[in-house]
Each structure stands twice: as structure tokens, then as C-alpha cells.
Amino acid sequence: MIKWLGSSKATPFWFLAPVIAFGIIFFILPLGFALFTSFTRWDSLQPPRWVGLDNYLYLLTSDRRFFPTLFNTLYFAAGTLAIGVPLSLGIAFAFTQSRFQSLWRSLYWLPMVTNVVAVAYIWIFVLAPTHGLLNRLLAMAGLPGPGWLTDPSIAMLSVILVFVWMQLGSNMLLFSAGLNNIDESYYEAARLDGAGTWQVFSTITIPLLRPTVMFVLITNLISGMSYFTLMLVLTEGGPLGRTTVTALYMYEMAFADLRLGRASAVAYILFALVFVLTLIQLRFFRQGGVDAH
Amino acid sequence: MSGIVKSRTPGGRALTVLKYVLLTLGAIVMVLPFLDMFLGALRTPAERLASPPIYWPRDPQWINFVRVFTELPMLRWTFNSIVVTTTITALQLLTSAMAGYALAKFRFAGANKALQFVIGAQMFPFFILIIPTFFILRYFPLAGGNDITGTGGSGFLNTYTALILPFSVTWYGVFLMRQFMMSVPGELLDAARIDGAGEARIFFTIALPLVMPGFVTLGIFVFLYHWNEVLWTMTVTRTAPDLQTIPVGIYLLRGAFVEETTKSLQQAAVAVSVFPVMILFLALQRFYVRGLTAGGVKG
Description:
With 293 residues, chain A is mostly helical. Chain A has helices spanning 2-6, 11-37, 54-62, 66-96, 101-109, 116-126, 133-140, 155-181, 184-192, 197-226, 229-234, 246-255, 260-291; strands at residues 40-41, 49-50.
């Protein structure tokens, strides 16, 4: 063994050693530990007690809060796609054909380099009822301003808008990279054939941009389903739990209520959902990769 | 993607106007909230309590940006942010470059499986690791007063290690560095071996300098991400004020800013947490663009 460690065959393993150790302690072990915990009742003070599938059964049959959080999760993920993707696509179209690109890019990227606590506290003031900036502007236009973060029926919409604001820059970059990847010769050929603006857009730009659009849609969907930090600091899940997404529900169940077994079960159910979406994504890109060329 | 792209479609003047209107409107929406925060930081308590509250500060309280450092633990938070972020960046760069080098430049049993593992591991969302990682640090054997069975003490909780260790490897970084290391010519490494250079020396003096552009891009990426990291840091420092970083400190101190008269100081603290990063980012923007496009679209 000692002889092997000094041989040239062992060299790559020396370079991989830190990553292998990390992978075992901070990846494989936690995944297994969480799976085990999800079959127990555990408050971290007493040793865990095996309860079989009880946590899963409780969540799926008796828990009144679990399915609403799943609904909130889907609402959030779908909302960020429905508002964020067309918006960033439109901005990307304008951006790729504009002058002063580095200026625009700098401005659109400001939220991306801002920590999420600052994002939350910037928007808490902008969205404040009556005297927040947004409602002041609405009042100038003679419109009534709602309680953006306090009205249960629109709080999630506000969270979605803040998230779209945060993410706009990175989606814009992905789309503009996709637009720049479209070969100039297609456009030249179309122009020589006398195609109009709309024709070029609908027959060249849109079809050739499809892989990028699908990539952004699916990665945003997956990350949106897993996301909860903004809700944690901006609304703390309220009002009336309307912005409590499943991952936030899990976090609070674990670190506020110390129901670690049940929280682990929540994590695994949500993970299963995200995993299925990921598999669909992989399948899609294997096909998409062939179709695109 | 640099420079001015000539109008590709023979669109009319109306389309050009529309384009700039859209870009300008969007830019206003991007910037206005930051301005609102900045103005808020300058308001006097009297302006806040006026009915209705005064929006444009008449007597700008620049002193608030000093008070952030004298009345809040901002210096302590900044120190923690620097310690944690630079350590994480250094560790991730080193582990990514080493592992990427092994995966790209060596043939060994299981090499393919290892690469698949690195790619697969990136797909696991962080939320599933939060609970178990917290308790692995808590019950780590022989750490922080724990015995060999991992009980008796508090493990790595309430230490810098708890903030750093779970982020000492990035699977994305390993994959990215592997891609960069692929371009290092194998003949160069073999020539050095024939000259009798040790493997560690070959790595540091030949392979690493050749992938410097990727190394720098990954470094900026990692630094920015962890400078702004909130979720994990908050989870492990909730009861350890001495270890809190800038954004986490500001968030966990929110109970001190309930009174309307204290909110200018809160907004000043938020501004202090944002502006230095923005300036740094604007200076390094070029590297950042390259990293995002390299990692993102090729998927």
C-alpha cells in the first residue's frame, strides 16, 4: 500500500484526495443522513426514533400546510418564468443591437452583484405602504397603491417581481449570448433575398434561439423550485404563509421547530420533484442537441 | 459579444427608438431602487417623522455612513466577510484546479465515473444538504469538545470552520477547471517528468500558469458569490454574533431598526454592504462576462 502511494499510478488520486474527502463527508454522507432522518422522529436533543414512513404519510395525507407550500412553490417558479423570460428576452433583443453595451450591461447587472439581504431591504422600503417609492409614484399618476408585501393576495406577486428584478441581468446575458451565436451569414442571406424585419425575426432568429430559450426556461424552473432565501429575508413566509414555499417550510420546520425528521421528508419530496424535472431537462437536451444542428 | 453589433435586420427608425426606450426604461427600474436606498440613508429622523414623510433629504446626513462603522459592528462584520470569503476562494480554487488537473490529464481506473459524479453532483439543490450538513458539523468527532463518538461538545458550530468547510469544494469549479486543463499539452508535462520534476512542481509551475485565465475568472466568480452568501452563514451564525458577515449581520440586527427614526442608519448599512462590491465588480466586469458565458450556454 505504501509502495503504491508513492508510485505514478497514485498521482491522480493525490490531486483528487481533497475532493474525494469532501464528496464523502459533505455530499454522500449528508444525502444518506437526511434520508435516514426522514424515516425518524428527531428533535436533535433526544436520539432519533425510527418511525418508518410516518413522516411522508403525514405530509401527504394530514398536513394542512404542505400542499399550499407546494402550490406557492409552483406559483413562484411559474410566475418568475412567465414574467422574467419574456422581459429578459425583449431586453436582450434590444441590448444585442444597441450601442454602449458595457453601460447597459453594468446597469442591468447591479442587482446581480447585490446580496439578497440588501435586495430585500431595498425593496421593503420601495414597496412600503402609503409612503414607499412605488406607491408615491402610483399616487402621482392618481392610482391607488396596494400593500405590496402585506396584502396576502399579492405578496407572492411582489416577491416574484423582486426576484425577476434580481435575475434579469443574468437571463439577459444568456439570451444575448444565444443571439450572438447565431451566424451572421444567415442574416446576410436573408437580406440578399429581400426578407423584411419581421420575416427575418420569425424565420431565423426565433427558431435558432429556441435551444437557448429552452435552456433558460428549464434551468430557471429548477432553480425557482429550490429557491427560498429571498422569501426568508423579505417576507419571512408571510403574510398568512402566502409566500412560504416548500423549501422555506422545510427550513423553518428544521431550525425553528426542530422537527428534523419531518423536515427531511419535506426535503426529499421536493427533491424528488426537482429531480424529475432535471431528468426531463437532460432528456430534452440530448434530443435538442441533435435537433439544433 | 463585444463592441457594437450592426443592425442585423433592416428595421425602421421606429424600431430603433423602441429599442432604446425599452433599454432606458429597464435601466431606470434597475437603478431607481438603489437611489431610493441612498436617499433614505441621508434622511434626518425629523424628515422621517414628518407627515407626510419628506422624500428628498434637505439636510443630507452623510454622518450616517460613519455611524455604520462606529455604532454598528460593521468593522467586525467586514473582517469576518474578508476572512471567510478569501479562505473559501483560496480553497475552492486549489481543490478545483487540482481535481480538474487529475481528471483532464491522467488516465486512471474510474476516471470516467469520477467525471460523471462531478457533473451529477452539480444538479443537487443546496436545500437538501442544509439540515444534514448542519448536524454533521455539530457532531463532528473530536472537534470543539466532541469525543470520538461526536458528542459532548458543540463540534464546529460557532467557529469559522462551520462557515468555510462545507464550501471548500465547488463541483462546478472542478468541472470548469477540468475543461480548462484539457487544453494543457500533455507533451509539456511529459517533458518535465523526463527532466525529473516532481508531480507537485509540474502542477504548480507548468499546468497552473497555463490555465490562469480560467483560474482568475473562477476566483472572481467564487469570491462574489460567497461575499454575498446569506443562507448558510445565517444558519450557522444565528447565535454567534462574532462570526456574522456583513449581509447576515445586517439582517440579524433587524430588531434594532424597528423605530422609524433608526431606519436611516439601517439603509446606510445596506448601502455600505452594496457599493464596494459594485465598484469592484465594475472594475472586473470583463472577466466575469467571460466566466458566465463559458459556464452557462454551452450546457
